[in-house]
Amino acid sequence: MLSKKNKEILLGPLSKNNPVIVQILGICSALAVTAKLEPALVMAVSVTAVVAFANVIISLLRNTIPNSIRIIVQLVVVAALVIIVDQVLKAYMYQVSKQLSVFVGLIITNCILMGRLEAFALSHKPWESFLDGVGNGVGYGIILVIVAFFRELLGSGTLFGYQVIPQQLYDWGYQNNGLMILPPMALITVACIIWVHRSRNKDLQQ
Amino acid sequence: MKALKNYIDKIKPHFEPGGKLSMFQSVFEGFESFLFVPNTTSRSGVHIHDSIDSKRTMTVVIVALLPALLFGMYNVGYQHYLAIGELAQTSFWSVFLFGFLAVLPKIVVSYVVGLGIEFTAAQLRHHEIQEGFLVSGMLIPMIVPVDTPLWMIAVATAFAVIFAKEVFGGTGMNIFNIALVTRAFLFFAYPSKMSGDEVFVRTGDTFGLGAGQVVEGFSGATPLGQAATHTGGGALQLTDILGNTLSLHDMFLGFIPGSIGETSTLAILIGAVILLATGIASWRVMLSVFAGGIVMSLICNWFANPDIYPAAQLSPLEQICLGGFAFAAVFMATDPVTGARTNTGKYIFGFLVGVLAILIRVFNSGYPEGAMLAVLLMNAFAPLIDYFVVEANIRHRLKRAKNLTK
Fold this sequence. Notes:
The structure holds two protein chains of two kinds. By secondary structure, chain A is mainly α. Chain A is built from ten helices and two strands. Chain A has helices at 4-11, 27-32, 37-61, 70-92, 94-100, 102-105, 111-119, 126-156, 167-171, 183-200, and strands spanning 158-159, 162-163. Chain A starts with a helix and ends in a 6-residue tail after the last helix. The longest helix of chain B has 36 residues, at 370-405. The chains are: A mainly alpha, B mainly alpha. At the A-B interface, loops of A face helix 6 and helix 7 of B. Chain A: One of its GO terms (biological process) is sodium ion transport. Chain A: It catalyses: a ubiquinone + n Na(+)(in) + NADH + H(+) = a ubiquinol + n Na(+)(out) + NAD(+).
């Protein structure tokens, strides 16, 4: 089940081959949903589920899909999964679903999805494709959660909606950094993560 | 002097590669070349050394900033004592001392944080220490309101130096003006301490000096703040902090609330004369910023609906004297690193800075200080402007060459 190669498929995207900080894919949703931890976490789980199952389905169909219409088939599969995720969120996590608004629907256009389907699922077996989908989804999710952690902590003084910066500090004159709530700081936070990651992995530097 | 030189020569080996303190080599070099002229000369070819190196350039800019800074200090005290109603019985020097003590911590914080990061970055990369922060560190305290907390200035300065300067490669490589990035960071991160009517006049005491109660009818809104929040149409009447009408004369001299160094157009113009006489700043940029501002204010006077955009009623001269327009024109737009480099480009760059500053000021009441955003936006476009100017020149000359060979 988890041979050495499969382990590589699962764990590679977490660091050395991370979709966000190495391949620079899926940046737009990383900017949009990371102002708070909760929506970021839900987004991470949704994307992981969609990538994993889309990978499995496309991998099962890979020998029957005509090459000339493969993108259309991939889109149909992804769209169907995204609608399921969207409906589940609406049913069980209505508040978060409202915060995420169009970005759940926009998972369809997330570059990570098409990238994995094209590059991996079309040429690998279902189990490996599933692992690859989970690995990439989690790799994307980790970055989202790290960015959201800093943005929520510095921008709102809370984590998951609970105040963690003590009231005492506010009384001494501390203020939340309003810029952290705005999208530019998500970009800069991602850049900082890339900076740290590259300086720890010399082989990624050009 | 001789003893100092001997001492420096004695400790020098420690800082050379392999020495005990070799990691601090660039700090040592920085101080050595600050104290003494380096005794090495070029080894090959013919070199002409201009005596205006970047250290001298920076020093001249600092000198040019001094009138605005000193006036800014006096004005901080002036507005304070005016607010607590004790201006008449307070001597000139006590007023100045109050402002001096209020502004000095900001200068210290800005330099300590900025130079600290600069020194650390130089050590880590084994670069020489460069003097780029000398001017930025003086500009930063001059473009913030007097009641902005020191820790905010420290955070913003650190952000600007790291993300707007060091990541691009240090002095001379930055795309955006460091001081303005600092101000923009403060403005968007802590809007309540950078705008509104509570931060531009210090009503409390400074180190126990000048305690008192504000007089009745006090309002700390800046003239541009008043214009931005003016509602209900009708004529716009700008007032000082006690509600007296402001004349153009007051605005020009600068006895109005505002960011520390930006209020006095007169002091800024003295600085401009110093910069132009020494040839440090480009007159093309300065002139075209003012031209752009005047043209845009005239357009606003004629065409904008003053009921919706009250700031459109301000005359061109008022627009120039108020807020940070003059300061941005003289000290920010003329930054040789972030502005356009070609001569034609300088006219275009400056003109657009002036136009945008007034445009933002009039049509977006959320940002009464348009000059900061205008310069930052045009910083991003400066390379593009230069590119097209150079391309146009190449095409022009190719055409001429073709005509000659015909």
